[in-house]
Amino acid sequence: MADTKISALPSGAPAQGTDEFIVARGGGNYKLTYANLEAVMDAATAAKLTSATTINGTSFDGSTPITITANTPNTLTLGTGLTGTSFNGSANVTAAVSYGTTAGTACQGNDARLSDTRTTTGTLTLGTGLTGTSFNGSGNVTATVSYGTTSGTIRA
After folding, report:
1. Which of 48, 42, 19 is closest to 32 using CA atoms?
2. C-alpha separations of 49 from 52, 64, 152 in Å
3. How far apart are CA 100 and CA 110, in angstroms?
4. Where exactly are the structural domains of the chain?
């Protein structure tokens, strides 16, 4: 149904105050008061805002439609191990994990980087009250507590 502009109060409209009347429109009945009718008349005859306002960087005065677009001031840059296009808000992007066996890729499955031998750079030395071989990473060791009553032993 086309919009109809109201240029004056219709015949039988309520006077300013508490009067009400029913309007049938579009298959429905609407109860109107004087205040409702003034608002409808103002909206139907309004041309533009007295003072334009800026919405997301676009001037808007109500005389023409505007399109609001996303404003993303910062870019999400994909880091090491990810592929795809960095996100700047202009379009949807898909990032994927870059799997491989070289630097700059992510490990998966039986990648040698997950199970290769590591060289120990130090030695774990047994302290007071412990006997056995100090640990240097070359094999398993067993440390035993030395019980006794002399210096360098632990009382049981």
Report:
1. 19
2. 6, 11, 91
3. 11
4. 119-156
Beta bridge partners of 124: 135
Q: Whole-model pTM above 0.90? A: no
Q: What does the pLDDT look like over 120-154, one tens digit per residue?
A: 777 888 888 888 888 887 778 888 888 878 777 77
What is the Cα–Cα distance from 129 to 153, expressed in whole angstroms? 5
DSSP string, 68-127: ------S-B---TTEES--B-SSS----EE-B-SSTTSB--TT-GGGT------S-B---
